[in-house]
Design goal:
- The structure is a single chain.
- It contains 10 helices and 15 strands.
- By secondary structure, it is an alpha/beta fold.
- The strands form 2 sheets. It has a 9-stranded mixed β-sheet with strand order 14-13-12-11-7-10-9-8-15. The protein has a 6-stranded parallel β-sheet with strand order 3-2-1-4-5-6, sandwiched between helices.
- This is Oxidoreductase.
Length: about 400
């Protein structure tokens, strides 16, 4: 058994205490919480001691972190505009890095970090934890069904993914400020785009509609986002611009991998006045999938008594009241069956950390490739440009 990875978590606010520290503490066979960066602890032992009753070394400056030779892994859960500088300095100091989404404010910075990590043989990992949401795992299972299965949606035509909320006031945090990588596009949009990439790969075109819809705080900080991303089958020469009021299914030459075009509609609305928010709407040639509510892990992590609770069988398990529903057409093409599609597999953010440890100690492949994290930022940049120019843009294809 290999030695646990000596880990330092930067930031002990919501991100650090909810999404990082509990996993480092719980997965003792993989990690050891060596230290945290907390510039002004208000009590002896700091925030980690107060929250989990565990005493760890406290660094009061980032310079002290990168100068500490015992630290092998730096976990970056600080404000978005610090991610690039902290990740670059950590990699340069010879430390592996796990960085919260959005990984950087610009795609050029994301490419630079990759080159540094590659040159030094270090692991650079993007914290795209929502690939392990229970409902996303359930959706992937549904989309993997063979078309012969009676519950299959057939070939996907449209994928609609939401992170909607109803919030009339500002939160009063750095996320409300006009800083690099601030706003709903970088915050929730990074998750929505990443899930779309995991399902369908890199898109061909993108249309973005981005604005500050509430008109409060800095008008440069967006709080309403809608992306229309068109995935075009191979051998397609052209596509009409997408209209934000409806979806147009254009027919192209059939290709071996994708017989129909797919439209991914990704939305985050801050003034969605609903008691139960839509999460997914997926339309296929033989049926549709509808899902309400969000994964339960974040709410669980905020209140768990001890990190070990993460490893319990019920952690991440979605209640039946949140399971999705299917409508699939029968052979007659007229009659529909209505069934429940269960989120049977619990959500498991711990899987990301286990993969991170395997990458560091054993050279395992990353389940969230850095190229995807880089593409997320590139698409956010293109979405902003699309919104500013009022037109659909081509997404450059990788060689």
């Amino acid at each position: 058994m290999s030695k646990p990875i000596a880990t330092c978590v930067l930031g002990v606010g919501l991100s650090g205490l909810t999404f990082h520290v509990p996993f480092v503490l719980a997965l003792k066979e993989h990690f050891a919480l060596h230290s945290v960066l907390e510039r002004n602890p208000t009590e002896e032992g700091g925030s980690v001691k107060r929250r989990f009753g565990v005493s760890v070394k406290i660094h009061r400056s980032f310079e002290a972190v990168i100068a500490d030779p015992e630290i092998e892994l730096v976990v970056i859960g600080t404000p978005n505009d610090t991610h690039y500088d902290f990740a670059k300095a950590s990699l340069t100091a010879g430390k592996h890095v796990l960085v919260d989404k959005p990984v950087t404010p610009t795609s050029a910075q994301a490419r630079e970090l990759y080159e540094i990590a590659k040159s030094k043989g270090l692991v650079l990992y993007a914290y795209q934890n929502r690939r392990w949401d229970s409902d996303f795992l359930a959706l992937k299972k549904l989309l993997s069904l063979p078309e012969t299965d009676t519950q299959s949606l057939g070939t996907v035509l449209e994928f609609e993914s939401h992170f909607d909320r109803y919030r009339t006031s500002l939160k009063g945090t750095w996320k409300d400020e006009a800083r690099p990588a601030a706003g709903l596009t970088y915050d929730l949009g990074a998750h929505l785009i990443d899930q779309s990439l995991a399902l369908f790969g890199r898109p061909d075109k993108i249309t973005g509609f981005i604005q500050n819809i509430r008109g409060i705080g800095s008008l440069n900080v967006d709080d309403w986002v809608c992306y229309l991303i068109r995935f075009i089958p191979p051998n397609t020469n052209s596509v009409r611009p997408l209209d934000p009021q409806f979806t147009i299914h254009l027919h192209y030459e059939r290709g071996p991998a994708r017989p129909y075009p797919v439209t991914a509609i990704l939305r985050a609305h801050i003034l969605s006045a609903r008691s139960s928010q839509v999460r997914y709407l997926v339309r296929g040639t033989r049926g549709s999938f509808t899902k309400y509510g969000v994964d339960v892990q974040e709410d669980q992590l905020k209140v768990i008594p001890a990190p070990e609770n993460i490893l319990e069988i019920q952690h991440g398990k979605e209640p039946e009241s949140l399971w999705g529903s299917l409508e699939t057409v029968q052979a007659d093409g007229v009659t529909f069956d209505r069934t429940t599609w269960p989120s049977e597999e619990p959500g498991c953010y711990a899987s990301l950390f286990r993969n991170l440890a395997a990458a560091i100690r054993e050279g395992a492949d990353l389940l969230v490739p850095w190229r995807d994290a880089q593409t997320v930022i590139e698409l956010i940049e293109l979405a902003h440009k699309s919104a500013q120019e009022g037109k659909t843009l081509d997404v450059p294809q990788l060689v």
